[in-house]
Amino acid sequence: MHVARYGKQRKIVRRKERRGYLLLPFFPPDMFSTKQSCWFIRKVVCWRAAASNAWAVLLLLPITAVFVILSRFSLLHPIQTISECTSLLTSTSAIFSFILLCGVILMVGFLNLEYYTVIPTVACSKIALLGQLLHPRQFVNSLVHCIMGIIMAWCCAVTIGGRYETLSYHCTQSDGSPQMCLNEYHLILLLAGAFVGLSHSLLGVIYNMNYVSFHTVKQYKYLCFKGSLLLVVKCSATQALYSVRNYIVVYFFLGYIPRTWMCKTLNLHLSSSVHPLDSITGLLDLSLLYHLWISAAFLLFTWYITLLLFRIFVTEVYSFPVQSSFPEDAHHCLPKVLADKQPMILKFLALQDLALLSQHSPSRRCEVFSLSQPGGHPHNWNAISKECLSLLTDLTQRLVAHHDTVATNGRAKSLSFGSERKTSSETSVTSGAEDLMSPRPTLLMKTPTSVFTRSIAEGSQSMLTSPFTPDLDSPFASPGLRHLIAPIDQGSPWYGTVQSPHVMRRAPKLWSTSTDSQINGSPLPSSASVPSPKKEPSKPSLLAQFLQNRKEQLPEASSQALFADSQAHIWALEGLSYLVQASFSEDQFGVVQTTLPSILSCMLVLQEAVDRHFKLPHASSKPVRSTSGMGDSTYKTLRFALRATLKTAIYRITTTFGDHLNAVQMSAEHRKRLQQFLEYKE
Amino acid sequence: MITGHTVRTHEGSTLKMCSLALFPPPLPRGQTTLCEANNEMLPGTDTQARLKHDSSALSLYFPRESLKLHSRTEISSKAAFLDHSETLWMRSATAWRDGGFTGLLNEITNSHTEVPKWLTVSSGCILALLRWVSSFHGSLYPHLTLSSEDMIAEFSQVLNCATTPTLKHRLQRSVAAVQWKPLCASALAVACQSCLLVWHVDPCSLSTRPSSGCAQVLSHPGHSPVISIAWSPSGSLLVSASPVDTAMMVWDVAAESCVPLQRVGGGGVTFLSWSPDGSHVLASTPSALFRVWETRMWTCERWPCVKGRCQSGCWSPDGSRLLFTVQGETVIYALTFTDAPAGVPTSTSKGPQAAAVVADLSETTFNTPDGDIIVGGEIQSLAWDPRGERLAVHLKGDSQAADRPAVIAVFKTRTNPVFELLPCGFVQGEPGAEPRLMQFHPNFQHGALLTVCWSTGRITHVPFYFLSAGFPRFGLSSSPPLPCLQERPADFASHSLFTELIY
């Protein structure tokens, strides 16, 4: 139950975190229902975002200059190119389009601030991913990106000039009468901007581009930026190449639609003397391809730079005071801030600061170990250790719950079906999956997944039972997808027969369990021979089948989702272990001694849970290393980082205290475990 | 005289300089150093006789030739089997895969009978141009012209050692350095020719040959051969260096991600050493330049040397003092770092302005009953014990000349009232054995314990018994009980701590 509450809390936190700060007409109204926001967002995060935006706008000028030179460069007349470029850069149209570009950059910066997250959204299945893509929030994002892409492409068209410059031009009809014709070169560039913007937005969801990760290697912002600049150039160039390739294919097949629509609405004509561009000869124009590519690269590069700057600025270390002499500042202090659930970024930065102060700063550690002036209570240490321990306990419970779900299903599998359909609540609780299994044997099984895939599916898809469901903006949360689910629920044979709330709660899991009916190795009777006492297996709808096929699990996704916010746990572990280590010599009043048993037992229990989790299949398999791309894939390896940090943290305590730990009260089991650490046998 | 960060001899400073002339004479031939007790190095004579006695241990001795790995490269063996009837395309593809762009150009240039003449000529021209560019680059940084084996031999801290085939991996070739992860019982980082391997070996596992699935492969394009590695003392990060890559990699091993720290000057990084308190990293380059990185914000200080490159270095336990040696010089320099005021997160630690010479190890002749022995000269490596009381200096000597043996000179170090090195004695092995590797035990209760790997394949532990004069450390015994010193030295041999492990 406690675990379930955690999931809800996270949801609330995320919704509040994303509250809007600028009013935009196309944002859903519920985002602005409450206007009060945290002091930290107002005073720190917003300023950091503004600073990053300011830098991005400043950098826009040289980037644009480089783009102008590259787009108009001709090998034969280099000097002429340069003089043309300088005259262009000082013209009024260039200044106007530059102002437009600045507006777009500011908008991109605002979207970064609005959509960023420190906990990635891991889609456990393809259907969940689809749900994310179709989410209204995402739809708004895509739309805005499309519009911005068009604006930027228009600026590009004006800058490149020549045949791209205007949408229409004067032409003569075959009978000699003058009229306005559509300039398809201009149109193709505008549409390319829209396409690249859309694909950028969609790829952002797939690769979690809005995820902001905290690096273990801290560098100054300038060095960090300089180090990543080459990567950004490479990323934008390759991504532009792929986008342009896809765009050309799309335009080749569907290009006539926007062209005729444009002609109709603007009352333009198509010149008969010019080839239409959606033909092979039209598209195999090297200069056109080059201009499409360089425009797309320019667009992506400016956006990526904005994103990069935002990430660098927002993850910068923020130093919170440990204690304040003024009571009105008390809520800015580390112990208070750590306990805040409100904006996740605040909690993360506070934990990061805790981890750093525990390692590097003796004077601040001293404040942590200090006693309150009247009364002599170690309030600081108590608050900090309590918060860290509760974080770790949360993770332990999540892991145990996950493992229990898996274990339950593993047991259910071994039972023969039909025998235990007693509709007793006990059965439905322990083996809800089993209930669902027998009546639906006709479903096709697409992938030869293992038994364990099913188990993982179990754990991660029933979003109500398992609080660690990654898809907080999941398809099930969106009303559109609920409609898709509903018919399946009703069509399924057990609908209405099992009244147990436990089973009802597990409704979304239906697909995953039914897919598994063939894998688990039990001899599968044909539908006729199923001893189903209550009903005939009904044929699932086509839609259900389609959805189910899309439902196959992405491997190790549930593991990633489980550890999605583990950066917080890593910092908590580091902070606690360093503080405990420092307390050996620095803690004058022995305040750490009182909590040492609970810290040790908490870590050991977590260690056990993590070890058990890593015995699951897929949990210990390494993710494929993504070669390039702006998406941050740090979250994929957080579980390994957590495991390593946990072990190091326990070793840090045991090597510091050595045999003194024998005086610490703990259960025999934990003592045995700790002894292994003392003997370096873990 | 002192300008900027230039390393200069600091004449007339308050630091006292120690030289080898103050050392007690080395032991007579045939005697090996057993331990230090009561401020003397105690000799032992009858090691050979004792070895005969422990015949079971003797059988473990492998001649180094038998351990020599199969050294033939892939290309040479392939030449024997190459089917010459392959088409040009196939050969080009193979050349591209094996030798990259230059390989492809070579292939085209060599097969002039099959390709059009303009292609041969143009590829030949490009090849010549590439060679010219690389030779130009190589004249700036001469080490780049070495082959990777030579490079490892040149820059590695280890002289000419063989590896044992306990952990085998396809990519594990030309191992230059190994290091265990601190605060972990099971992770071992191995610097290989093409990549970095991190082995995760379960200490309780019964299998003697862990499979290659236990190894994590960390590689970055352009970062090979990896020649030096260093774990952070907290065990979270790993830095690796390659003499051909100007960037030093900081690896987050669990996440398998790396941050390249690029600094152009120097042309590569050859030696890394992380200070025991985790605050600084020494990174020396193949040129007369080394850097000291500060690990909170990863900024660095440049230290140009006058003569040669920084050969080796070691940190005091509190990370405030760096001792290093420069190739071509026979002195030990010291740098002192004072920490920044605590609590200010962004300030870097303020470094010193110049390095001071703390010891002179120029050649000194000792008169022994067996004749004169010359000790001193170039320094191969340094090691400082975790308490900061003993400093072991590996003197290279001359393996050809019998009167210039390679020895380990041990200094006592004192930080109060001024930092100084005091002579302690020499650690010698059997006649003809040269030290290859040495390291102090991280957690020895009674003083310091130096483990030396000799060229005969033997490993000896040399304990130094002393009472720690410095600040109390985290170790449990602030005053280590001295072992019974009344015992005759020969009895020490039976003690389990310093049995000679034959290899």
TrEMBL record, chain A:
It is found in: Nucleus membrane; Nucleus, Nuclear pore complex. The chain crosses the membrane at residues 54-75, 87-109, 146-165, 185-207, 228-254, 288-310. It comes from the Eukaryota. One of its GO terms (cellular component) is nuclear pore transmembrane ring. One of its GO terms (biological process) is nuclear pore organization. It holds the Pfam family Ndc1_Nup. Residues 511-521 have a biased composition (Polar residues). Residues 522-532 have a biased composition (Low complexity). The keyword Ion transport does not apply. The keyword Plastid does not apply. One of its GO terms (molecular function) is protein-macromolecule adaptor activity. It is a multi-pass membrane protein. Component of the nuclear pore complex (NPC), which plays a key role in de novo assembly and insertion of NPC in the nuclear envelope. Required for NPC and nuclear envelope assembly, possibly by forming a link between the nuclear envelope membrane and soluble nucleoporins, thereby anchoring the NPC in the membrane. Belongs to the NDC1 family. This is Nucleoporin NDC1. It comes from Monopterus albus.
